[in-house]
Design a protein that fits this description.
Radius of gyration: 23 Å
Strand order of the largest sheet: 8-1-2-13-10-11
Shape: globular
Bound molecules: CU-O-CU linkage
Strand content: 5-15%
InterPro entries: Di-copper_centre_dom_sf, Polyphenol_oxidase_C, Polyphenol_oxidase_cen, Tyrosinase/Hemocyanin, Tyrosinase_Cu-bd
Helix content: 25-40%
Family: Belongs to the tyrosinase family.
Organism: Selaginella moellendorffii
Protein name: Tyrosinase copper-binding domain-containing protein
GO molecular function, one term: catechol oxidase activity
Number of domains: 2
Distance between the termini: 14 Å
CATH architecture of the largest domain: Orthogonal Bundle
Largest sheet: 6 strands, mixed
CATH topology of the largest domain: di-copper center containing domain from catechol oxidase
Length: 580
């Protein structure tokens, strides 16, 4: 079983993997990936500089070979069967204590702040479910009744009024996010920093963060039924009140207001779930924006994320370099809504547009409520393998949070797999995007036969050794994307739409997904300019199906840099196709 899973993942290594120095510095060019026996030829149209570079060896990694097998096993969906003997390779990321907290790395222009939590005065306790608590219903922020808004407002008033040294104080709560994002913490038994973005830790860590935040607010109110609202930006329904604008509670109630928001994005401006980081050109009509948003949701949550690793992000184990790659949901809509909300006039798009300050805006917790809700929704969608990872290095990852009684609590990912266990659920608001399949751009089908004609470079892609399995997902991997942690880099990916440019809609069947970096100062290993490399993985089986090219020997991949970073070259190591 383990061997079978490994060979299916291992057998498709592109030649770029073997010769990473292939120089592909191109303005706009096509590269053909040749297939030994006809599995897939990839022709690539690149509209940015592509420099094949030696992938910097990730420091801090040990037992590489074994770990890689482990990674591949879990991606293949057969994790339970491929786990090694107990203890042999157990390697979950853990925050062991908060006493080693060091000053956060902040971006240029940021006002200095100490993001470290106050030291714990009593020993760490292990999390236990509190079965005496009432179930809490998280409701959409735009539908809150006046009495609910008043309660919400009062809760934040109380939280903001706590003493500066109280870990439950609002500013301390905001700093928790900063500490976990901007290199304040080191992992237990390792010199590596702990980073909870750009990997499979993203969803569970934020679920826990909101859990404790909500419990603290409830405790301050003396009301255990208090539930955080969620910002239902994925709901494109017209009418009043609108779900997909900044909800009025965050604009009218002093404790919920944040002055560092993009002033061009106040209501009635609709949220742009595929925001490029720049407002240029005319504002699209609302109907267009709604269709774009639905299409983005469809691609990221339905079509392009049909396996656990595509949705949750890449494995990140103790000692690994940070940021192996976020899942579809983390890139967009998560990252795009952050950047859309933050102030374009602030040096780093504070507050929401950069990680160290994002949680200073109370809307952060409603934004992440919606992300958390989409985790629940994703597991109910048809098609693919939509379940939580079963890898014990994910399940046993451990974090520390202060609870409503100011006790420091150790939590594990495995205790946060359902919201019901944690005592809350989400009001159903429908998910219209789940059936918003975009249509095909006329002529796209014809590109297949032209694609390989003028390709300058031939690179071989390994043959798949097994019978094709319908459950298997074809994954386009854009390897070693090099980004500056401080910049709001974004590029979109299209298949068989070589004419795509920054004006091309995402509401087309050729749209395959997006890469988004929410700026942060995240990796001391990144070296000058805080560079990091990461892989973008996009599930493309459904897209190829829709385009009628599932068995085609050629596909054209076009990368379109967008927004503020579009004039900078985006560098990456290469492409490959994998099956998982
Ligand atoms: Cu921890 Cu939305 O970021």
């Amino acid at each position: 079983m383990a061997a079978a899973t490994n060979s299916s993942s291992n057998s498709l290594l592109s030649a770029l993997d073997r010769d990473p120095r292939t120089d592909l510095r191109l303005g706009r060019a096509r590269i053909q990936f040749g297939g030994r026996s006809g599995k897939r030829l990839c022709t690539t149209t690149i509209k940015c500089v592509h420099e094949g570079e030696e992938h910097a060896r990730r420091s801090g990694r040990t037992s590489d070979v074994n770990r890689r097998e482990f990674v591949l096993g879990s991606i293949g969906g057969g994790a339970a069967a491929t786990l090694p003997a107990a203890g042999a390779l157990a390697n979950p990321v853990e925050l062991g204590s908060i006493s080693s907290c060091s000053p956060a790395e902040l971006p240029p222009g940021a006002t200095p702040v100490n993001c470290c939590p106050p030291p714990n005065s009593s020993p760490i306790v292990d999390f236990q479910y509190n079965t005496r608590l009432p179930q809490r219903l998280r409701r959409p922020a735009h539908l809150l009744r006046p009495d609910e808004i008043a309660r919400y407002n009062r809760a934040y008033q109380l939280m903001r009024a706590l003493p500066a040294s109280d870990p439950r104080r609002f500013s301390q709560q905001a700093n928790v996010h900063c500490a976990y994002c901007n290199d304040s913490f080191r992992q237990a038994n390792s010199r590596s920093e702990l980073q909870i973005h750009d990997s499979w830790l993203f969803l569970p860590w934020h679920r826990w963060y909101l859990y404790f935040h909500e419990r603290i607010l409830g405790k301050l109110l003396g009301d255990d039924t208090f539930a955080l609202p969620f910002w239902n930006w994925d709901n494109q329904a017209a009418g009043s009140p609108l779900a997909n604008v900044i909800p009025s509670a965050y604009l009218n109630q002093a404790p919920l207001i944040d002055s560092l928001r993009n002033q061009q994005h106040l209501p009635p401006r609709l949220v742009d779930l595929n925001y490029s980081g720049q407002d240029s050109g005319p504002i699209p009509p609302d109907s267009t924006q709604r269709a774009e948003n639905n299409a983005l949701m469809f691609q990221q949550i339905v079509s392009g994320s049909r396996t656990p690793s595509l949705f949750f992000g890449q494995a990140y184990r103790a000692g690994d370099a940070n940021a192996p790659g976020g899942g579809t949901i983390e890139n967009a809509p998560h990252g795009t809504v952050h950047v859309w909300t933050g102030s374009a006039a602030a040096p780093n798009r504070e507050d929401m547009g950069t990680l160290y300050s994002a949680a200073r805006d109370p809307i952060f917790f409603a934004h992440h409520g919606n992300i958390d809700r989409l985790w629940v929704v994703w597991k109910t969608l048809p098609g693919g393998r939509r379940r939580d990872p079963t890898d014990t290095d994910w399940l046993d990852a451990k974090f520390l949070f202060y609870d409503e009684n100011s006790r420091l609590v150790r939590v594990r990912v495995r205790d946060a797999l359902t919201t019901e266990q944690l005592g809350y659920s989400y009001q159903d608001t429908g998910n219209a995007w789940a059936s918003a399949r975009p249509t095909i751009v006329a002529g796209a089908r014809n590109l297949v036969s032209n694609a390989a004609v003028d390709s300058p470079a031939k690179l071989r892609i390994g043959k798949k050794e097994e019978e094709e399995d319908d459950e298997e997902e074809e994954v386009l991997v854009i390897q070693g994307v090099e980004i500056d942690c401080d910049r709001a880099t974004k590029f979109d990916v299209y298949i068989n739409l070589p004419g795509a440019d920054e004006n091309t809609s995402c509401n087309v069947a050729e749209y395959a997904g997006t890469f988004v970096n929410v700026p942060h100062f995240g990796d001391r290993r990144g070296g000058p300019g805080h560079m990091r490399t990461t892989d973008l993985r996009l599930g493309i089986s459904d897209t190829l199906d829709q385009l009628g090219i599932k068995d085609a020997r050629n596909i054209v991949v076009t990368l379109v840099p967008r927004g503020v970073g579009r004039l900078d070259p985006i560098k990456f190591k290469g492409f490959k196709i994998e099956y998982e």
